[in-house]
Specification:
The structure holds 2 protein chains of 2 kinds. In chain A, about 65% of the residues lie in helices and about 10% in strands. By secondary structure, chain A is α+β, with helices and mostly antiparallel strands. Chain A has 3 domains: about 400 residues, Up-down Bundle (Multidrug efflux transporter AcrB transmembrane fold); about 140 residues, Alpha-Beta Plaits, CATH 3.30.70; about 160 residues, no CATH class. In chain A, the strands form 3 sheets. A 4-stranded antiparallel beta sheet of chain A has the order 2-5-1-6, with helices on both faces. By secondary structure, chain B is an alpha+beta fold. Chain B has a single domain, classed as Lipoprotein localisation LolA/LolB/LppX (outer membrane lipoprotein receptor (LolB), chain A, Clam). Helices cover about 15% and strands about 50% of the residues of chain B. Chain B is built from 4 helices and 13 strands. In chain B, a hairpin with a 6-residue loop joins strand 4 and strand 5. Classes of the chains: A alpha+beta, B alpha+beta.
């Protein structure tokens, strides 16, 4: 009688838990819908007080350095005809009319200054104001362009079929709406000319657009696959639903809390559900796996007995795994990058919520809706049970028998990985995130083929001395540096104050190419610049030199935004640091490409730092939890191996490290720890229970090993779906997560298990006593 | 009721005082008076030009300038005194009454040669400053239509406010508004509006004196509000109506220095 009342009570409590959980989720969902704010400005991701960014931002302000949207107008017949020239003019003026774009920030053949020499002097004027109509005038314009290498090859292609209109925009201007407007704008000028849109803002925009869009499409499929595989493994709709509910609810809570606290959603935030899905299903699988085994042995147990046994036996490993995982993620707080800090913090929060839900919501769900039992084919199920038991036992024994093979394989893998890790390189390239045959890559290649390059690095020269930048020795060194850096195949062009000086020196000497050099006297340079200011609009000059000639900006244009290429270019530029320093000129770098390079380095360093830190923390925590130092080290084996092998494989397969791929290594911690703790805890229980080593390994492998295999199988299947994504970074994400799961699983049930077995941890006392 | 009465009285007083002072002059007449303000035929003096960008960086140039009005053509020659590396650089401008483009020459001592420079139009900036050549020259009042806007006090001077709209729609300004000192018909302040009708620049004259019987502007500032760039021009040591030799305004004169 009494018992029944308690069951009724339990049912009531269970419903209460479910209702409260759903209510909280509902509230968070509502907050999320109302307050979620997506952050697309990449500058917001960077640590504001890092010296490299502080300097770059300052330099961007001094010289009005902004990323350019490149609109290429192609006419295979050549651009020197009324229609195409009109189009260049129309696009230029329409861009200038846009609210977000300043007049002076649009560069094209229509706005360019033409510095020309004539028999009587110097002229700085527009190439054309009214579009030339007659053949004669068109020919004249063409000759003017050919004669001016500040324009030819820079905004008009050498083969005269493509012209560029460049619109520089401030980072803050960029939005999804602006991106769509620009594409629609360019599209409206299509025909008969072909219009292409390229440039850093477009690539960033497409990425910010495509990544989440693709994820929105793929994540539901991932979840569906996980549901199917979970069902396959758990053989129960109710268990599948509740396991998945834990994951989804914890994700909603993590995001909901972000919304409540007013924290924007960053691109890396997308990794939070990825982590929670990969890590969160573990709790449910282990709980239900235990339940199954219990019911196999005691098919007639009541719901209360079954769930009670489940929680009694499993709460400890669930808490231990979750706490260690959370602490591992919290170590990301040491990162200098704000979004990464949030990522660590809220993933940790999600993991802890998943823990609480697993221990409260799952049993409540069981009381409310009942648990699935194997009713039919009792006989075959038991057969199945004994089959898996045999399999687990055989595997456990085989591993010990082939210990040499296991250990040597591990050592070889580790050595190869360490070799591979050294080859790992960072790549902050945005462009390489896209398919080789995607529009954006093809457009970029097209523009790069015809012009100096779609990416750039700015070299900022600075001196204490007034007029330092117009000293001939400084000018000559700038010129020399440009000449050398331009020998690199991927450097298309470079541009600086010395280009102006050389151009004017030649023009003032009757266009004699022999004078296309830096003059020897500072007076001459000063007077040329004065002349330029008096003849034209000096606005363009302030993009390359500052007001009192203390600072200069050298723009190096590259045909690639690959970090290797950027580094190679910087290496050459760095050679000039010492010679400049002798002239009392300091050298620094600036611009978005450089910032991206530094930024990726920061993320990576932070990631490696926190990875190492969390491994230490994990060792300490495990040692404390199991009250054995040796367990700390044994438990860290899957984590270390997963991290090492995944980095090693990336190095060997030439997969570059980016923000996303670096963060995936966090998964090694979460999952490696889960597997290790569940396995060790089970091993400990059986060891103390049976006091028999061979029985212990068989049981542990059957209980824990089975659950780990299920877990790995479910998540791997789910994430393999991402291989069908259209967005390459999401594909590598899927592959890496699956790969990490697989390595963690294998490492746990082979090498870690072997070390555990050989170390005699939980048998030591007995054995010494017996002996 | 009281408020309305008060307002009516105020409006009446304003209208009355306005009528009293300038009832007889239209906008056109005021601008003609400004244009015809006698300026002297020969002017010489030192000019300090300060260019200030939005960051507050300042560049200073000192020049010695000579201006000779020969009726159909106004000739100006300037010699740079500083900065040191452009010292003795000279610039000569001949501005014609008939609307022809100005003729301009520059002498670069480092090159030891006089070069012609040509500007596409009067909308070019003068020496990288915020003044266009047109801002510096006198624009004939017949080129605009003028409208009297009212009266205001600027820097303690009673001024009339005149809005001038160019007859030529392609002109670089869509309109200008000038505050004219009622006493001496010097424009004390002028707002320039760009093609879109937005305020582009503000000219402000902060110092003027009567020298040798002429009103002479001694300190003026042009502020480009859109770029937040300023140019200050300060004239010192100004002498008027002192004969300047004709050969000063020749290519050879340019090479000789001041």
């Amino acid at each position: 009688m009494k018992k029944q009342i308690t069951v009724k009570r339990l049912k009531l409590y269970s419903w209460l838990v479910i209702v409260i959980t759903l209510a909280i989720s509902g509230w968070f969902t509502w907050e999320l819908a109302g307050n979620a704010r997506m952050e697309t400005d990449l500058d917001e991701y960077m640590p504001k007080d890092h010296p490299a960014f502080v300097y770059s931002d300052m330099a961007e302000d001094w010289f009005n350095i902004k990323d350019g949207i490149l609109i290429a107008i192609e006419n295979p017949e050549g651009i020197y005809n009324v229609g195409t020239l009109d189009k260049i003019k129309d696009i230029t003026k329409a861009l200038q009319d846009m609210e977000a774009i300043e007049d002076a920030d649009v560069t094209s053949l229509y706005t360019a200054d033409n510095i020309v020499g004539s028999e009587y002097g110097l002229d700085v004027k527009a190439f054309y104001k009214r579009t030339p109509k007659s053949e004669e005038k068109l020919k004249e314009l063409r000759e003017l362009v050919i004669a001016n290498d500040m324009v030819q090859g820079r905004i008009v292609s050498d083969d005269e079929t493509v012209a560029l209109v460049v619109a520089s925009i401030a980072d803050s201007v960029f939005s999804m709406q602006f991106y769509e407007d620009i594409l629609a704008f360019a599209d409206s000028y299509e025909g008969p000319e072909n219009i292409y849109v390229a440039g850093v803002p477009i690539v960033e925009g497409t990425m910010a657009y495509l990544g989440p869009k693709d994820m929105k499409k793929m994540v539901p499929i991932v979840i569906v696959v996980i549901i199917l595989v979970l069902y396959l493994v758990l053989r129960s709709i109710r268990h599948t639903i509740s396991t998945l509910a834990v994951v989804l609810i914890s994700t909603i809570w993590a995001f909901g809390l972000m919304a409540v606290l007013g924290i924007s959603i960053y691109a890396v935030t997308i990794m939070i559900p990825v982590m929670l899905i990969a890590i969160g299903v573990a709790d449910g699988i282990h709980l239900y796996s235990h339940l199954h085994l219990f019911l196999d042995e005691q098919p007639n147990a009541t719901v209360k007995e079954a769930l009670g046994d489940m929680i009694r036996n499993m709460w400890k490993p669930v808490v231990m795994t979750s706490v260690t995982t959370a602490v591992g993620f919290i170590s990301l707080l040491t990162s200098e990058v704000l979004p990464i800090k949030y990522f660590g913090l809220f993933t940790a929060f999600g993991v802890l919520m998943a823990m609480i839900l697993s221990l409260v919501f799952i049993p409540a769900f069981g009381f409310a809706f009942g648990i699935s039992r194997k009713k039919k084919k009792q006989q075959s199920k038991t057969e199945m049970h004994s089959f898996t038991e045999r399999l687990a036992n055989n595997f456990a024994l085989a591993t010990i028998r082939h210990k040499v093979l296991v250990i040597s394989t591990t050592v070889i893998l580790l050595v190869v990985s360490i070799f591979g890790i050294q080859k790992v390189y960072i790549n902050s390239s945005f462009l390489e995130n896209f398919e080789r045959d995607s529009d954006i890559v093809l457009t970029d290649a097209f523009v790069n083929k015809h012009f100096g390059g779609t990416s750039s690095i700015n070299v900022i020269l600075e001196s204490e001395d007034k007029d330092a930048m117009i000293r001939p020795e400084v000018e000559k060194l700038i010129d020399e540096m440009q000449t050398e850096v331009e020998t690199l195949a991927l450097v298309g062009n470079s541009f600086s104050i010395s280009d102006y000086i050389r151009r004017m020196n030649q023009v003032m000497h009757a266009d004699d190419p022999a004078f296309d050099v830096i003059p020897d006297s500072q007076e001459m340079i000063a007077q040329y610049l004065l002349l330029y200011e008096m003849s034209g609009d000096p606005e363009n000059l302030w993009k390359v030199v500052d007001y009192d000639y203390r600072k200069a900006n050298v723009t190096v244009q590259l045909k690639s935004d690959n970090s290797k290429d950027l580094n190679q270019t910087i290496e050459i530029l760095e050679k000039y640091r010492a010679p400049f320093s002798e002239l009392n000129v300091e050298m620094n770098f600036a611009g978005s490409g450089y910032k991206a390079l530094v930024f990726t380095g920061l993320i990576l360093n932070g990631q490696i730092k926190s990875l190492l830190m969390s491994i230490v923390i994990i060792i300490i925590l495990l040692a404390l939890m199991f009250r054995k130092v040796s367990i700390g080290f044994i438990g860290a084996i899957p984590v270390v191996l997963t991290a090492a092998i995944s980095f090693g494989v990336m190095g060997l397969l030439n997969i570059s490290l980016s923000t996303t791929t670096a963060l995936v290594s966090s998964i090694a911690i979460g999952i490696g720890i889960d597997y290790a703790v569940h396995f060790i805890e089970r091993y400990k229980i059986y060891a103390l229970q049976t006091k028999d080593k061979s029985l212990t390994i068989g049981e542990t492998m059957h209980h824990s090993g089975r659950a780990i295999a299920f877990n790995a199988f479910v998540v791997i299947m789910g994430f393999l779906v991402l291989l069908f994504s259209v967005f390459p970074p999401n594909r590598s994400l899927g592959a890496l997560v699956s790969f990490n799961m697989f390595i963690s699983f294998i490492a746990t049930v082979t090498i870690m298990y072997l070390v555990l077995y050989k170390s005699n941890v939980f048998f030591n006392k007995k054995k010494t006593k017996e002996k | 009721m009281k408020t309305i009465q008060f307002l009516t009285v105020t409006v009446l007083v304003i209208l009355f005082s306005f009528n009293q002072g300038y009832a007889q002059m239209s906008g056109q007449e005021i601008m003609e008076a400004v244009y015809n303000n006698p300026s002297g035929e020969n002017i010489q003096g030192q000019l300090e030009m300060r260019l200030i960008n939005k960051q507050g960086d300042t560049r200073v140039r000192e020049l010695q300038q000579y201006i000779k009005d020969e009726g159909a053509v106004e000739k100006t020659i300037m010699f740079f005194l500083s900065p040191a590396d452009v010292r003795n650089t000279s610039f000569m401008n001949w501005s014609y009454d008939d609307g022809r483009y100005d003729d301009q020459w520059i002498y670069l001592p480092a090159l030891k040669r006089v070069k012609r420079i040509s500007s596409d139009s009067k909308s070019d900036n003068f020496m990288g400053s915020d003044f266009t050549y047109d801002d510096l020259g006198d624009r004939h009042p017949n080129q605009d239509t003028h409208k009297l806007l009212g009266e205001e006090v600027v820097d303690g001077y009673a001024c009339v406010v005149v809005e001038s709209t160019p007859k030529d729609e392609a002109y670089m300004y869509s309109k200008t508004v000038t505050w004219v000192n009622k006493e001496n018909f010097i424009g004390i302040k002028r707002d320039f509006y760009d093609e879109d009708g937005d305020l582009l620049k503000t000219l402000h004259i902060s110092k003027f004196e009567k020298i040798s019987g002429y009103w002479v502007i001694l300190k003026t500032q042009m502020h480009n509000v859109q770029k937040d760039h300023r140019t200050e021009m300060i004239f010192t040591d100004v002498k008027l109506d002192q004969e300047i030799p004709e050969n000063k305004f020749t290519e050879r004169g340019m090479t000789l220095g001041r």
